[in-house]
Amino acid sequence: MSPSALSAADPAAAGIVLIVDDVPENLALLHDALDEAGYLVLVATNGESAIARARQSLPDVVLLDALMPGMDGFEVARRLKADFATRAIPLIFMTGLTETEHVVAAFAAGGADYVTKPIKPAEVLARIAAHVQNARQMKQARSALDAFGQATVAVRASDGRLVWQTPLARQLIRSWFEPGRSEPSEIAPPRLLDWIMAAELARRERREVPGLVASEGARRLLASFHDQTGDEEWLVVLREENDASAIEALIAAFRLTGREAEVLYWVIRGKTNRDIGDILGTSPRTVHKHLEHVFEKLGVETRTAAASMAMAKIRAASEGA
After folding, report:
1. Which of 120, 209, 235, 290 is disulfide-compatible with 227, CB 3.0–4.6 A?
2. Do 193 and 127 belong to one domain?
3. CB under 8 Å to 1, separation ≥6 — which residues?
């Protein structure tokens, strides 16, 4: 199927492109070339309308004129990148200014690429196609994380900004660090940033990366590194643990009594029989008896095997919650 036929079937199939330029001739040239290639084309002639249209339509790419009357392209870019809804949209600057300082300014404002004037439609189409593909892959990855209920957040190390986060991550961050705020912050909480710095240092020194970010009574917030991008963004997975819910999960999974589940839970936490006895207010001998019953019900012979099975069940229960 040709791009034109594809466009007729689905105007947004190739992607949505917002062109921001105050020169009608440039708009007409780009609009025609993009429309023929199958893109849904939106147009803005000034900075204010560009920001409004980007927020409303969330295009796959923005083609942005660097120099415009009033709000220039650099300021438009900064505002789009400061807005959580639009910051992930790739920005391609269009400029006749090839001096180094202007190119640097474009990237500093959040640009992903630039093309020089006079505009060559074939070059623009090639650049747009690459950025649309990358943007859609990122959207698909984030949608998959959302669908599977992963609490994942991307944090930029240079300024602590939350580049993006899944709904569950936003919920956990707000619950743990911003319970009184009417609007969620776009800056990572200090405790999360402290954990990232400590964990990165541990990784560099080949030490065990700490998991605990915060604790409150029977609740704990744990974090683990998923990845680090080349532009100093940390991808972090958050997970909340709760003693009571974990014990309930063990009772349901293995048909344990309440006390047996409590003993198994503290085995997972690395406690000895004496420690568990102190926690539960009973003797180590009684703990041992409960543990024998646990081994029988799980069909295992060692604490390590029991802990491994129990941890898998708790993790499955928390991910399915």
Report:
1. 235
2. no
3. 9
Which residues make Cβ contacts (< 8 Å) with residue 170, sequence separation at least 6?
184
What pLDDT score was predicted for residue 6?
Answer: 37
Angle between helices 190-204 and 167-177 (to 10 degrees): 110
- Whether the CB-CB separation of 172 and 221 falls below 8 Å is answered with yes
Same domain, yes or no: 305 and 234: no
Domain that holds residue 223: 149-242
* Domain count of the fold of the chain: 3
Give pLDDT, residue 228.
62
Calculate the alpha carbon distances from 293 to 88, 185, 247, 256, 289 in Å.
53, 49, 16, 9, 7
Q: What is the mean pLDDT of residues 123-141?
A: 79
Q: What are phi and psi of 97, to 5 degrees?
A: -95, 105
pTM equals: 0.48
pLDDT per residue as tens digits for the range 240-264: 878 888 888 899 999 999 999 999 9
Indicate if 187 and 277 belong to the same structural domain.
no
Does residue 186 sit in the same domain as residue 238?
Answer: yes
- 118 prior amide bond cis, ω within 30: yes
Q: Which residue shows structure tokens 């406690």?
A: 271
Separation between Cα atoms, residue 61 and residue 301, nearest integer Å: 58
**What is the 8-class DSSP label of residue 63?**
E
Rg (CA), the chain: 27
Q: Rounded to an integer, what distance in angstroms lies between the CA atom of residue 35 and that of residue 40? A: 6
Please answer whether residues 128 and 147 qualify as being in contact, where contact means their C-beta atoms are separated by less than 8 angstroms: no
Q: Which residues contact 276 (CB under 8 A, 6 or more apart)?
A: 263, 266, 267, 284, 287
Side by side, the strands of the sheet bearing 162-165 are 162-165, 151-156, 233-242, 219-228, 212-216
